[in-house]
Structure formats: C-alpha cells, structure tokens
Design brief:
The protein is an alpha+beta fold. The protein has five helices and eight strands. A hairpin with a 2-residue loop joins strand 6 and strand 7. Helix 1 crosses helix 3 and helix 3 packs across helix 4.
Length: about 210
C-alpha cells in the first residue's frame, strides 16, 4: 500500500538555524517520535530504529537511511529510508524536504513523502495510515521547530555582539544552553481512540 504525503509546517527560526537541523541526520532523527540513529556507516548512509507503542504493545522497526541529496543552496534534503520488524511488516519512505524563508526569524518546512507499507500494517488501510502519518509528522514538526529555535538562539550571540565586544564575550553573556530537545516515543493508543470516536460520531450523526 502506498501513501503520498504533501505537508507544510511553520518553523520558529530563520533559514540558517533551521538548516543546521535539517542537514544533520543525527539531530533530524530525534525529531521523529521513537526514532534514533544507531550507527553511521558513512556520510550518507546510516542505520536506525523506530519504536511505536499501541498501549502496552510495542512495534520496533530497524532499517537504513540513505541521503540522496543535500543542497545547502536550496536548503533541500532528499533521503530514502527502509525498515522492517520481526513480524514481517516492512516500510519504505522517499522524502524530499526543503525550507522556505518567511523572515529573519521564521520559515516553512515543506515536505513531499512517498511511503510504501507491506505486511500487517498495510491491512489498516489508507485512511488509518494517513491518520497515523499526520499525527507522527505533526509531532515531528513541533520538535523540529523547537530544535531550530534553540539553534537560532545559539547563533544569536555572534550576530548581536556589541561593537568592540568579541563573539566569546557575547556568548558568555548569553543564557545557558537548554537541554537537548528530543521527540517522545509515539503511542498510537490515542490515535486508535480518536478514530473510534470519529467512527461512532459519523455512524450516529448520519442517522435521522
């Protein structure tokens, strides 16, 4: 089963700060709920894992990530991810993401993804997979924006140094760095409950 996603999300940081997150696979991976990079094969190939919870049950995928293109001029990332779980389900995603400037302190993250799912997860159908994807990507976008905002704050001392003040002096006067921003593990139980409520609302709402 294939799901095509076209999304746009606001980012609370300028292009330069947001690009430092988008271009860093280790940082980018921690924006995705339950995801982590487990090893770096080379500059464009990585291995990783994703965990998704449904109540007490946990689905764990392991797989590979390949960076197909990374263009600083257009602030564009193109990557291919593939993974499988022990139950025989597999998924692949080809993603193109780029950043579009709004002003000095904000931009838009634009993404196009083609996701192919096989195995038991494909049985949920396009609507369920679309809803799961929307929730996961929504959480991803929130964490991405937070990370970009932290990066913007880190860049600020150099840009705001007073005349005669060194970058080091400006950095020393800046607030202490925040703890790393990491996405929380995704629990699909809330999604299942939301879909059930939507189903019953339509079922009884459609009756006269």
């Amino acid at each position: 089963m294939e799901v095509v996603l076209d999304k746009q999300y606001p980012v609370s940081a300028g292009l330069d700060a947001a690009w430092t997150v988008l271009a860093n696979m280790n940082e980018l991976a921690t924006c995705m709920p339950g995801a982590q990079i487990t090893s770096e094969v080379d500059a464009t190939h990585f291995t990783g894992s994703v965990r998704v919870k449904v109540g007490p049950a946990v689905a764990a995928f392991s797989g590979t990530i390949e960076i197909l293109a990374l263009d600083p001029a257009t602030r564009t990332l193109k990557m291919l991810g593939k993974g499988a779980d022990k139950g025989g389900s597999s998924a692949s995603m080809e993603l193109t993401a780029n950043l579009v400037a709004i002003d000095a302190h904000s931009c838009t993250l634009v993404g196009h993804a083609e996701v192919i799912v096989n195995g038991k997860f494909a049985q949920f159908g396009g609507r369920m997979m679309g809803s799961v994807s929307d929730m996961i990507l929504g959480q991803f976008a929130v964490v991405f924006s937070q990370k970009a905002a932290v990066a913007q704050a880190a860049l600020a001392p150099a840009a705001s140094a007073a005349p005669g003040e060194s970058t080091a002096q400006a950095a020393a006067a800046a607030p202490a760095p925040q703890a790393p921003v990491v996405a929380q593990e995704f629990n699909a139980l809330g999604l299942v409950w939301a879909l059930l409520k939507d189903f019953f609302a339509k079922l009884f709402g459609g009756k006269r």
